[in-house]
Every structure is written in structure tokens, then in C-alpha cells.
Design brief:
By secondary structure, the protein is mostly beta strands. It has 1 helix and 5 strands; from the N terminus they run ββαβββ. The protein has one domain (2-77): Beta-grasp domain (Ubiquitin-like (UB roll), Roll).
Length: 83
């Protein structure tokens, strides 16, 4: 099944080839965990980001426990700096 994934800011540089501006579809098996989906996106481990699943923030300790559904939308958001 295809999952819609959006990466914001500098994270969009890690989208697979052929992606549109900051979005892509990633094919995963039914019952795939959020952790398994995130492993398919080559963001380096030293790049911090927040994961939003269907408009709700997900803590990193829950990635293994959450199974992705066909209509889910996943957003990766880097830290926002301001001043």
C-alpha cells in the first residue's frame, strides 16, 4: 500500500528520486510499523525531526507500536528556529 509522506525544510532533500517538491508515496506492506516506514526515508540519524501522523505528533518511543494504515498521512518536520 502507498503511504503519503511529506518532508518540510531541509528534510525534503532526503525524499526518494522522482518525488514532487516535498511529497512522495512510499510503498509498504500492510501492517507496517511507523518505524519501518521511517527506515525507508534516508534521513541521517543526526538530523532531528518531529513526526506527525494524521495531524498528531508521535513520540519516538511509539514508532514501533503504531501500525500504518492505507489512508495515513505522515509528515516529518525539522526543528523550527526563530528569533
Amino acid at each position: 500500500m502507498d503511504i503519503s509522506v511529506t518532508l518540510f525544510g531541509g528534510l525534503r532533500h532526503y525524499l526518494p528520486a522522482g518525488s514532487s517538491f516535498n511529497k512522495c508515496k512510499i510503498d509498504v506492506d500492510e501492517g507496517c510499523s511507523l518505524a519501518a516506514l521511517l527506515q525507508k526515508i534516508p534521513v541521517p540519524p543526526d538530523k532531528p525531526y518531529m513526526v506527525i501522523l494524521n495531524d498528531e505528533k508521535v513520540a519516538s518511543d511509539q514508532f514501533d507500536e503504531i501500525n500504518i494504515q492505507a489512508d495515513d498521512e505522515v509528515v516529518l518536520l525539522p526543528p523550527i528556529k526563530g528569533g
